[in-house]
């Protein structure tokens, strides 16, 4: 709230000056309680004062005018000082209303808003810096260990948010490096792929997932095998070859279960990259070589034929309908995940290995050794 005050200057000119009043309950909802929230409280008060061009009352740059004016050897009250004093008192009152009762006396006994601001800054700024150092130490030492990756990411996010609130925000690059450092050796592939990127990651590049199954391939219990590979650009970063827990009554059902497993991995990678603050441009794409499975994922008409599948696998259909993922058909000859589910002819096996980027390092080393020997000879 602002009020206009008429001031008669020493040269008898008249000017209007605005005196700003504050509603601390709505404009300053965060109350200063100690060093743990001093930085947040300070930012709140600073933004409000800057918004009204009154921050000079806090940092001392808007000094008090003389209290009196002398004219013809006579002293008269200075109207400019009276206006300044009124505004300074209102600023100090706003600070007083935004601190806890235990700190109110520090503000109340100060002769001006600047002195009150300085006293609070002296009392809590150093302790706030100690808090920042403590948070940075926590961030530097945190690791995933054996806990779920979601808990690990949540803890890092919490520390990063606290640092930002305390005025020591870390950059996106620093946050990404910190997350990757604490993931552990099992995430080495995705860590290396992200570190080597020079451009932003899009879903079209990252979440290109090949999904396949070997229906009833186990001669002992006739369970099927799930296999999938997830690519980051041309680099495979996540893969799986695992027996399904229950027997599938059709190849379509086995493929559907494989797609569900691949989608679960895709969702996890999606959340990880969001935490890493990489731009996401398109929805994930899962490639499957079973036409019936792609129809079931996209067309609700076919769902009645699959009621015997456990309900938890139908989250695939729900995400397809919400346009969060798409399942597309792929010719079996191009199905990279095929190598993870069943024995293949030598030619097909070698071709899939080439697509996966797998190389025999021992052969390469032997070849290099022969080259070096040839150069010596």
TrEMBL record:
Pfam families, per the entry: Retrotran_gag_2
In terms of SUPFAM superfamilies, this protein maps to: DNA/RNA polymerases
User: InterPro entries per the record?
Assistant: DNA/RNA_pol_sf
Domain of life assignment: Eukaryota
The name on file for this protein is Retrotransposon Copia-like N-terminal domain-containing protein
Q: Which species does this protein come from?
A: Escallonia herrerae
């Amino acid at each position: 709230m602002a009020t206009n005050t008429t001031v008669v200057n020493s040269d008898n000119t008249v000017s209007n000056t605005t005196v700003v009043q504050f509603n601390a309950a709505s404009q300053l909802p965060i109350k200063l309680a100690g060093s743990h929230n001093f930085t947040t409280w300070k930012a709140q008060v600073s933004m409000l004062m800057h918004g009204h061009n009154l921050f000079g009352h806090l940092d001392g740059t808007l000094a008090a005018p003389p209290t009196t004016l002398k004219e013809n050897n006579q002293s008269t009250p200075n109207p400019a000082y009276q206006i300044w004093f009124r505004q300074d008192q209102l600023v100090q009152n706003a600070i007083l209303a935004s601190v806890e009762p235990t700190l109110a006396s520090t503000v109340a006994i100060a002769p001006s808003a600047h002195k009150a601001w300085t006293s609070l800054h002296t009392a809590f700024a150093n302790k706030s810096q100690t808090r920042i150092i403590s948070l940075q130490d926590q961030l530097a030492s945190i690791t995933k260990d054996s806990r779920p990756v979601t808990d690990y990411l949540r803890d890092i996010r919490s520390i990063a948010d606290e640092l930002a609130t305390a005025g020591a925000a870390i950059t996106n690059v620093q946050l990404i490096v910190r997350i990757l450092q604490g993931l552990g050796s099992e995430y080495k592939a995705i860590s290396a792929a992200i570190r080597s990127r020079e451009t932003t990651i899009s879903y079209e590049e990252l979440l290109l997932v090949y999904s396949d199954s070997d229906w009833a391939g186990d001669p002992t219990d006739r369970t099927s095998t799930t296999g999938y590979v997830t690519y980051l650009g041309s680099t495979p970063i996540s893969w799986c070859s695992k027996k399904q827990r229950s027997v599938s009554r059709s190849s379509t059902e086995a493929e559907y279960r494989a797609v569900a497993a691949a989608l679960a991995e895709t969702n996890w990678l999606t959340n990880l990259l969001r935490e890493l603050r990489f731009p996401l441009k398109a929805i994930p794409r899962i490639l499957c070589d079973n036409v019936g499975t792609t129809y079931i994922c996209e067309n609700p008409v076919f769902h009645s034929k699959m009621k015997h599948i456990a309900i938890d696998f139908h989250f695939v259909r729900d995400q397809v309908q919400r346009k969060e993922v798409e399942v597309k058909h792929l010719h079996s000859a191009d199905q990279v995940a095929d190598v993870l589910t069943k024995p293949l002819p030598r030619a097909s096996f070698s071709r899939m290995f080439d697509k996966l980027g797998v190389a025999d390092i021992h052969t390469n080393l032997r070849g290099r050794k022969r080259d070096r020997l040839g150069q010596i000879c």
